[in-house]
Amino acid sequence: MHVPLSVLRRCTSARWCTARRAREGHAVAEVFIRRLSRWQAESQREAVAKVYVESYGTEDSAADRASDREEFLETFADDVQRPGFDMVVAASGPRPVAYAYGFPVGDDGPSGIAELTSGGPVSGPVFVLAELMVLPDFRRDGVATRLIEQLLMRTNAAQVTVRVHPANESGVSALRAWGWTRLGTVEPTGGVVTAVDTAVEIWSRTLTT
Fold first, then answer.
1. 170 FRET partner, CA 20 to 30 A, in 35, 39, 176, 196?
2. Which residues pair with 192 in a beta bridge?
3. What is the arithmetic mean of pLDDT over 96-118?
4. Which CATH topology does 5-206 take?
5. Model's pTM, two decimal places?
């Protein structure tokens, strides 16, 4: 899972964002956010994969982008079938520009999350922010924050978790500044570990008290 948390940097208001983009010479486009059903998510999988590749693979070779796309589609096909799967899309006109999705932690959830959250300070259900992708032209305008807020609106979870690679220093710094808590480090394939060069970090934010 990839979550470039630099895309989460939010503007103080939609009007301020629009004014700033205009000053910086960006085209100003209104973005609308809506929730997708499981069937809609499955039917839009090619559009989701396109946004995924354009969000993360801009500097990769064509072969790497194709490989990343196929790997993402395999993971997405599994995730969309998970109980409690939920997804939102941000669109500018007919064009999707960002997606976020997640699901409650179950027995087959992402490796290491259940073990780490079970011993944490917050008890209760856990929701995993499994994927967040925003096209570069729509970053830093509050789109990602609005996506996450909409995604979490219907959950009854006590906390939300996200996996972040420790090399993503800006993302880790942002999580810390926003009050998220680092729960520990896990191998991408499972198990709690201490070798950060082969691991990802699990961060959590309390949703209810």
1. 35
2. 186
3. 74
4. Aminopeptidase (3.40.630)
5. 0.76
